[in-house]
Structure formats: C-alpha cells, structure tokens
Amino acid sequence: MAKSTSEEKVHSQKEWAMVIHGGAGTILESEMTPEKFKQFHGALDSALTIGQKILASNGSALDAIEATIKFLEDSPYFNAGRGAVFTHEGKNELDASVMDGSNKEAGAVGGVTNIKHPISAAIKVMTNSPHVMMVGRGAEQFSKQQGLEQADPSWFKTDRRWESLQKILQKEKSTGAVYEEVDSKFGTVGAVALDKNGNLAAGTSTGGMTNKKFNRIGDSPIIGAGTYADNQLCGVSCTGHGEFFIRYAVAHDVAARMDYLNETVEEASDFIINTKLKEVDGSGGLIALDKNGNYAMPFNTAGMYRGYISPDERFVKMYKE
C-alpha cells in the first residue's frame, strides 16, 4: 500500500540526473575476479561520465541516453551490441528501444544482426518514421537508409559468449534437456536520464537470451515492458527474464503505481521487483528516475550492475552492498 504524502521522504529537485544498468544476475560475486570487477566497474563508471558531460552542459536526456548506451553497446562486457549472447544458430540478434517522456514518442528495433548501435536505430524509428517498432531485415534496411553505421556480424562476437553457447549446446546434446547458464537471460544495458529542462528519456539494448530460438524477442524492445518514460512520473529501463517483464508490463507498471497509488518511485519499483515478480519466480531488476531525479534500482537476483549520477552524487554498484 502506498505511503501517505506526509510519510514520504522529502527529496530536493535535481538539476539533472542519470541512472544506468549493465544487467542483473550476470556474474555471481563468488566468481567475480578482481580483474573482472575492475573491468565491469570501470566500464559503468565511464558510461556515467559520458552522460554527465552531456547533461551538465545542458544537453538533452535523449542525447545522454543514446551516447551512454552506445558506449555500453561497444563494450564487450555486457549483453548488448559487441558482447551480445548467441542464438541457438550461433548468431547475435539484437533488440533495443527508447522512449521520450516529453511527448510519449517511442521507437524500437528487434532481431537485427548488422546495426552497430541498435539504440540509435530505435531512436531513428521514433524520430524519422510513423512507426514504433521495426524488426529483422526491414529494420536493417531502414537503418541503412538513415545512414546509421553498419557492422559485419563478426563485430558482435566475443569468445566468452561463444563459449557459453557451446557449453549449453554440449549439455543439451548429452542430456537431451534444455539447459541455461546463469547469464543466459541477463546482461542487458539501459539508461534513464533527466535533463535540465525537466525531460525524461529511457532506453534499453540487449542481445537477448543465450541459446534463444525462432527469433525470440524479450521485453527490451517492447514499450511498457522493458522501457517506459513519462515526464510527469518516471523513466524506467528493465533487465531480467523478459517473458515475465512482458506479461506484467513491468516498466509501465512502475509509472502506473506512482500515478494511481501515489507511490514514490522507490516504493513502486521495489514492490514490482521484490513482491509481484518474486511471487511468480520472475527474476531481474530495473532502474528508474522520477521527475525530480530520485532513483530506484531494485533487483531480486544475486546482483545488478548499476550506477547513478547527479550534480551532488555519484556511485557504481554491482552486488547487494
């Protein structure tokens, strides 16, 4: 139940703010070496700096999340762009979405294989087409017409992700059962930003699920499931087992609870991730910013790579510290 207004924490309005994630449940803390920790932590910290420079210099929330997510897509450490997981057929199929909280415009691409930065393609769908979502060859053709950078599919391949697929395929061959590793559903990247003009924008990009078949698409490119933004309420980006985030319209549900129940962004987000989804064994997490720049980043997995920055606060966290 929502707290009354008198019981809520009083927060000051942030001039600007940004929250990011690099996925929930990716590498268990017990398996995280000091070298890997430094790599992942450093990548997240660098991503925050990219957003900071844009937002502090009066740039737009949309520009901030695009530049930040492009950096994360280029990093081999996350399940998005270069570093994406492999399908059963040994391909990288990428999904992304974006939403502008100032006008509720949105764009998404799904199942693309040669667009270097899927988040930019999602933005072009939003700004330069009458549509919200494009998939497969059509999305690729559109991105080329829009002048976006293309990439040979080999650009996205990393040895770590390829080995993960081979382990799963070998296990399936020997047991006849469908097998998934810990990282099979996770590692998605996302960002939500609030700019100096009070505009919110949210974006999400992913390689989906290791060993996925039949052009499976999860929640990341689906507006209201993996991404949502409304200037009057909040911006949200999700990561986790996408099927549950689709069924429960998680990203929109955060905004709905804030709107209809007068919950804070922290209360709404925590209830959805740690009560509503846990009750149905839905695993994952989300990041969110409200219109004042207050953040929420709940997760019900062993960890979630995440970070927050505003003029007076900055941090990167990976586990439940």
Characteristic key phrases:
single chain; 321 residues; alpha+beta; Glutamine Phosphoribosylpyrophosphate, subunit 1, domain 1; eight-stranded mixed β-sheet; four-stranded antiparallel β-sheet; 8 helices; 12 strands; globular; disordered N terminus
The 3D shape can be described as globular
Strand order of the largest sheet: 4-3-2-6-5-1-11-12
Number of helices: 8
Q: How many distinct domains?
A: 1
Determine the CATH topology: Glutamine Phosphoribosylpyrophosphate, subunit 1, domain 1
Residue fraction in strands: 15-25%
For the biggest sheet, the summary is: 8 strands, mixed
- What is the CATH superfamily label? (Glycosyl)asparaginase
Helix content: 25-40%
Structural class: alpha+beta
- For the CA atoms, what is the radius of gyration? 18 Å
The end-to-end span amounts to: 27 Å
The CATH class assignment is Alpha Beta
Which residue ranges are poorly predicted, with pLDDT under 50 across at least 5 consecutive positions?
1-10
Query: Which sequence of SSEs, written as H and E, runs from N to C?
Result: EHHEEHEHHEEEEHHHEEEE
The pLDDT mean sits at 92
- Which CATH architecture? 4-Layer Sandwich
Strand segment tally: 12
